Amino acid sequence: MAEGPELDAARGVGGGRDMSPDELFNTGVAFLGKGKPGEALAAFRAALAKREGNPRYMSYAGYALALAGGRTKEAVKLCESALRVEFFQPEQYLNLGRVYLIAGNRRKAHQIFWKGHSIDPSDGALLAEIEKLGIRKPPVLPFLKRGNALNRIIGKTFYMLRLR
C-alpha cells in the first residue's frame, strides 16, 4: 500500500471516519475525474486492502497506477487479472485499453476496445475510445502487408498528393 500524501488525501476524504470499500472506490473515481491519479490510486489501494481481489477495484487501480506512476507493466497485470475474473464487464476492457494507450501500444489498445465493444455495443466510453483511435484505411496494395516498403511509400505519396 502506498504511503504519503496520496494516502493521507484518500483517508482525509472521509473526514477522519473509516470509509467502506465502496466509498473509497467512489472517492478514487472522483479523484480520477479531477485529474488526480495519485490520490485515486491511494483510494483504490485502500479499497483493495479492505476487499482483496475485487476485480473492479483492481482494474481501476491499474489504470490509476499507469496514469500516476507510469508503471504500465504492473498496471497491465492488474487490469488483465481483473479482466480474467470479470470478462463480461466492458469497463474492464476500457481500463485495460487505456493502460495500453498510456504504454504506447495503440494496436493492443484498439484490439481490447473492440473486444469490449463486442461485449456491450452500446457502451459509450468504449465507442468514444475507438473513435479517438480512428479507423485505418486499407493498404494501397492489398496483396502486400501494410508494413511492406512499397505499400508505405505509395501510401505516403498518395497521402501527400491527397489522393487518399
Would you kindly provide a written description of the structure presented here, covering whatever features stand out?
The longest helix is centred in the middle third of the chain and has 15 residues, at 55-69. 69% of the residues lie in helices and 0% in strands. It folds into 2 domains: 5-136, Serine Threonine Protein Phosphatase 5, Tetratricopeptide repeat (Alpha Horseshoe), CATH 1.25.40; 137-164, no CATH class. With 164 residues, it is mostly helical. The protein is built from 9 helices and no strands. It has helices spanning 5-12, 21-33, 37-50, 55-69, 72-85, 90-102, 106-119, 124-133, 149-160.
Characteristics:
164 residues, mainly alpha, Serine Threonine Protein Phosphatase 5, Tetratricopeptide repeat, 2 domains, 9 helices, disordered N terminus
Layout of SSEs?
Blueprint: H1 5-12, H2 21-33, H3 37-50, H4 55-69, H5 72-85, H6 90-102, H7 106-119, H8 124-133, H9 149-160
Helix pairs in contact: 1-3, 2-3, 3-4, 4-5, 4-6, 5-6, 6-7, 7-8
Number of helical segments with 4 or more residues: 9
| CATH homologous superfamily grouping of the largest domain | Tetratricopeptide repeat domain
The separation of the N and C termini measures 52 Å
CATH topology (level 3) name of the largest domain: Serine Threonine Protein Phosphatase 5, Tetratricopeptide repeat
Beta-strand portion reads under 5%
Query: How many strands, which pairing sense, and closed or not: the largest β-sheet?
Result: none
Low-confidence stretches: 1-7
Provide mean pLDDT, rounded: 89
Shape: elongated
Percent of residues in helices = 55-70%
